[in-house]
Design a protein that fits this description.
354 residues; alpha+beta; Beta Polymerase, domain 2; Methane Monooxygenase Hydroxylase, Chain G, domain 1; 2 domains; seven-stranded mixed β-sheet; 10 helices; 15% strand; rod-shaped
C-alpha cells in the first residue's frame, strides 16, 4: 500500500462525512480496553462494547478508552454519537492515510497522528494511525492494530507516584503525543546513523548497492518529513489554544513538546540535504572514475597508433624495401619502436597527462 497517499476504495463520490474505512484492515476483531484511575486507584479491563466503557466515565476519575481496529464503521458511528463528534472528524479518523491534524474546541480536543516504527534491517519506516479524542474526564484513542507504542505512558499510569499530573485529559494527551514524538526522534537518529555510514561507503568503497541505498534513505527521509511538518502545526495549535480543556499547568510541557518536534524536523532536514549531497558526490565520483578509465584507454591508444602504423608499413609485401635485406633491419625496427614509445612517454609526462 502506498504510504504517501492511500487509495480511496469505495470512498470516491460520497458526500462529506460519509464513514468509509480507507486503508488496510489490520485486526480481525475490534478490541476495547479501559484504564480508569485517579491519584490512588487504578482499574484496567477489557470490555465487549464501547457503551460499557463510556458508562465508566465520571467526574472523580480519568477514563482512558482504547479502541483497537478501525474497520467497523458502525461502531465508529456509535462512538461518534455518544461523544457528540462530528462526522467529518470521524471520516478523518477512518482515513488511515490522513495527514496529522488537530481540532481543538471548548468541549473536545482531537488529534490525528502517526505511530512510526523503523526496521533497521530493511531500513524502512512503517506507520499506523493513532487518533485521540479528549473530553471532560475521558480520553479515547483509536489504533489500527495492537501495539506497544504507548506502553511507556501506561507504565507511568500504573506507577501511582506518576499520576499527579496525568490524571487530567490534556496532560494525558500531551503524554501520548510526547511518546509519539520520542519515537520520531529515535527514528531520525537511527536513519542519521545509517546516512553517516553511507557517506563513508560512498567516499571509500562504493558498490553496486550504493545507488539503491541512497534512494532508500531519500525515500524514508521524505516520508518522515511528510509526517513532521504537520506535527509542528499540531503542537503549536495545542499550545496556543484557548480551550478550557487545556490548563495553564500543561502549557510549559506542550511548549517543550513543540521544541522537540522542531528539533527533530531540523535534524531530518539536515539528513535529507546530506543524502542529496551524497547523491551528487556519488555521481561526481562515478563521472571521475569514468574519466580516469577513458584517460587510460586514450593513453594506450596513443601509444599503439604509431606503433601499429610502423608495423603496418613493414608488414606490406612490396619487393623493393631495403630494410628487409639489411643485416640490422630487425634491430633497427625494434629501436624505432622503443624510441617512439619513449618519446611519447616523455611528451605525455611534460603535458601531465599521467
Amino acid at each position: 500500500m502506498a504510504r504517501f497517499l492511500n487509495r480511496r476504495k469505495g470512498g470516491s463520490g460520497l458526500k462529506p462525512g460519509s464513514l468509509v474505512h480507507i486503508g488496510e484492515k489490520k485486526v480481525d476483531n475490534i478490541r476495547i480496553t479501559v484504564m480508569q484511575y485517579d491519584r490512588n486507584r487504578l482499574v484496567e479491563k477489557e470490555v465487549a462494547h464501547f457503551t460499557e466503557a463510556y458508562e465508566m466515565v465520571n467526574q472523580d476519575t480519568l477514563t482512558w478508552i482504547n479502541v483497537i481496529g478501525l474497520h467497523d464503521t458502525e461502531l465508529i458511528s456509535k462512538i461518534g454519537k455518544l461523544l457528540k463528534v462530528d462526522n467529518l472528524l470521524l471520516e478523518d479518523i477512518l482515513n488511515t492515510g490522513h495527514r496529522p491534524k488537530s481540532i481543538i474546541g471548548e468541549g473536545m480536543i482531537a488529534f490525528i497522528v502517526k505511530l512510526l516504527s523503523f526496521d533497521k534491517t530493511e531500513g524502512k519506516i512503517s506507520s499506523d494511525q493513532l487518533s485521540i479524542l479528549a473530553g471532560d474526564h475521558y480520553l479515547v484513542t483509536f489504533h489500527e492494530r495492537i501495539g506497544g507504542h504507548l506502553e511507556p505512558v501506561r507504565e507511568r499510569i500504573r506507577n501511582s507516584r506518576n499520576r499527579e499530573r496525568i490524571i487530567y485529559p490534556d496532560y494525558l494527551a500531551y503524554a501520548i503525543l510526547d511518546c509519539v514524538v520520542d519515537m520520531y526522534m529515535d527514528i531520525a537518529t537511527d536513519i542519521g546513523d545509517s546516512v553517516d555510514q553511507l557517506e563513508d561507503e560512498i567516499i571509500h568503497n562504493p558498490t553496486r548497492q550504493t545507488p539503491g541505498n541512497i534512494y532508500r534513505h531519500r525515500t524514508e527521509l521524505s516520508y518522515l518529513r511528510k509526517i513532521l511538518l504537520p506535527m509542528k502545526e499540531l503542537t503549536l495549535d495545542f499550545y496556543r489554544t484557548q480551550s478550557n480543556l487545556v490548563r495553564g499547568d500543561t502549557r510549559p510541557f506542550i511548549s517543550d513538546l513543540s521544541d522537540h518536534i522542531i528539533i527533530t524536523h531540523e535534524v531530518t532536514e539536515t539528513y535529507y540535504t546530506m543524502v542529496a549531497d551524497q547523491r551528487e558526490i556519488y555521481q561526481a565520483n562515478l563521472s571521475n572514475r569514468s574519466n580516469e578509465i577513458m584517460q587510460i584507454l586514450t593513453v594506450f591508444a596513443a601509444f599503439f597508433i604509431p606503433l601499429t602504423f610502423l608495423v603496418g608499413i613493414y608488414g606490406m609485401n612490396f619487393e623493393n624495401m631495403p630494410e628487409l635485406e639489411w643485416e640490422y633491419g630487425y634491430l633497427f625496427f625494434w629501436i624505432l619502436l622503443v624510441g617512439v614509445s619513449v618519446g611519447l612517454t616523455i611528451y605525455f609526462k611534460k603535458k601531465k597527462w599521467f
